[in-house]
Design a protein that fits this description.
Oligomer: single chain
CATH topology of the largest domain: D-Maltodextrin-Binding Protein, domain 2
Number of helices: 15
CATH superfamily of the largest domain: Periplasmic binding protein-like II
């Protein structure tokens, strides 16, 4: 376990960003969808984290290359007890309201993020307890040894205990049941930017935190952020072309050449740590959103195999994505521990064989079903779903498409009111266990919150649980391989592709694409 020792110092980070530039300025930022909430523990969603990271901070975070760096913790290591990690906290840090950051805030924040209404609970559910040792030392105990604890903490934000209690939001917002609290609209973090104003789905304004601990460590050239969600792709691009915004995260694939060919603009492109796929309710005895009475066609693996064969991933890449995707056969991006070329291989597109499987399963005439899809979350999300509708129609599956904004779409999955749906999944831990815990493990108090497939396999559950405490990395990798083999055999999901990121910006900006699609603006610089 001592080999897993991780000691990090801010000095290494400072070498890359030695000085705060003098030409600090306002950044006008737009992307497809808004943050779902400002409550930092309520949701585990990329765009929500993207805004939160500007104002709140975790103990440690990933930089613009995906590397873990110290943030509110300066050192971390497993202790002599392999189930307990020690974190040394950064001293002299203040929250936006001037209060000191210390160990009490860490213990409070971790325990808050483990509450039932916190979607972040599923990320850190290997944590058993957090304890204060002294004002700037915390021990985090896990359910058995956990060599990957640092990996799960990069989006677990630290809150001011006193301020949070004064706002009466000790309990995280219950998002899926339309819960509310004062922390949904107000922020008191330690981050580089302070909330000035917020109008949900319209505009959020942030200003630089003059007392930020990271001065001299990060460039901090952005002094004001004006964030405007623009769902319509053409409008979003037009805003960039017209000079109304400086930076957009999701340039539509049909407009890449237009942006790149415009004077004063440039395009930054890179692979994303995110896979796009379809989920299917294979666990219920009968479906709600189909036209088959008394049974569940998706429960038959032959139907799922047929659907997998009927989706032409290369056609989606060529026609829908204009070449800007990486077709895959597994719901795991190449960044993730457990990925292999064999798993990544695309299932053969074979309509004749798929029809045969449908017939063997008793559905030669097909069936009707509703596909639920977001229309403001992923690159060309609704267009991908539209393409899948036609492809599945070739094997007799009559699909009705129901596309909604992400704020309405995600609760359909978590509340189990959809039987067939699109989802995109990033893996902030860069490890397969994160995928298994949320998407494959039997739904329970601390697992399977996005297992809209209702998949349940007791033997697989045991292996998933074992991953959290297996310290022999070779044995752990064997468990991961076993779980993926069963996942592929059972056709638990229908993978489509790994997403490619395209960020559009004015030429004066220097900003590389971050693999988790997280724009940490404290790293941004200007020419």
């Amino acid at each position: 376990m001592k080999k897993l020792l991780i000691l990090a110092a801010a000095a290494g980070l400072m070498s890359a960003t030695a000085m705060t530039a003098a030409n600090a300025e306002t950044l006008r930022w737009a992307r497809k969808g808004d943050s779902l909430t400002l409550d930092p523990h309520s949701q585990n969603e990329g765009a929500t984290h993207g805004l939160a990271h500007q104002m709140y901070e975790p103990l440690l975070m990933r930089d613009m290359t995906g590397k873990i760096i110290p943030t509110l913790a300066t050192e971390w290591a497993a202790t002599d007890n392999p189930s307990v990690w020690e974190f040394k906290l950064r001293e002299g840090v203040k929250f936006h309201n001037g209060e000191d950051f210390n160990a009490d805030d860490v213990v409070f924040s971790i325990k808050r993020a483990l509450m039932d209404t916190a979607e972040m609970r599923g990320v850190i559910n290997t944590i058993k307890d957090a304890r204060k040792v002294d004002d700037y030392t915390v021990h985090i105990e896990t359910h058995g040894p956990n060599p990957l604890l640092p990996n799960v903490l990069t989006n677990t934000f630290m809150m001011d205990e006193g301020w949070t209690k004064s706002k009466n939001c000790e309990v995280p917002q219950d998002f899926k049941n339309n819960g509310d609290n004062a922390c949904v609209r107000s922020v008191n973090g330690t981050g580089p930017y302070i909330l000035v104003s917020r109008a949900q789905d319209e505009k959020t304004v942030l200003r630089a935190n003059e007392n930020y601990w990271g001065k001299g460590t990060f460039p901090l050239e952005v002094t004001e952020i004006i964030y405007t969600p623009i769902q319509e792709a053409a409008t979003r691009v037009s805003a960039l072309l017209a000079g109304n915004v400086d930076f957009i995260q999701d340039v539509p694939v049909q407009d890449l050449s237009r942006v790149e060919g415009t004077d004063g603009l440039k395009l930054e492109t890179g692979a994303q740590n995110r896979v796009i796929f379809f989920g299917m309710n294979q666990g219920d005895a009968d479906l709600v959103n189909d036209d088959v009475e008394g049974k569940n066609p998706l429960a038959d693996v032959r139907v799922r195999q047929a659907m997998n064969m009927a989706i032409n991933r290369e056609a989606i890449k060529k026609v829908v994505m204009r070449g800007q995707s990486d077709p895959t056969g597994v719901i795991m991006p190449p960044f993730v521990n457990g990925w292999t070329e064999e798993l990544d291989a695309i299932p053969p597109y074979d309509i004749a064989k798929a029809k045969g499987l449908m017939s063997d399963a008793g559905y030669a005439d097909g069936f009707g079903i509703t596909l639920h899809c977001p229309n403001n979350r992923y690159v060309n999300d609704e267009a991908i779903c539209q393409a899948a509708v036609g492809m599945l129609g070739q094997i007799g599956i009559r699909v009705t498409l129901d596309a909604k904004p992400k704020a309405q779409h995600f609760p359909q999955i978590t509340k189990r009111t959809t039987d067939f749906y699109m989802l995109g999944w990033g893996v902030p831990t860069f490890d397969s266990a994160y995928i298994f815990n949320f998407l494959m493990q039997t739904e329970g108090e601390k697992s399977g919150s996005y297992n809209g497939n209702r998949y349940s396999n007791p033997e697989i559950d045991k292996k998933i649980v074992a991953l959290s405490s297996e310290t022999n990395l070779d044995k752990r990798d064997e468990l991961i391989a076993d779980i993926w083999a069963q996942h592929q055999k059972d056709v638990v999901h229908l993978p489509i592709h790994n997403q490619v990121l395209n960020w559009g910006m004015v030429n004066k900006i220097n900003f590389q694409v971050q693999p988790e699609d997280q724009p940490y603006f404290k790293f941004m610089t200007f020419n």
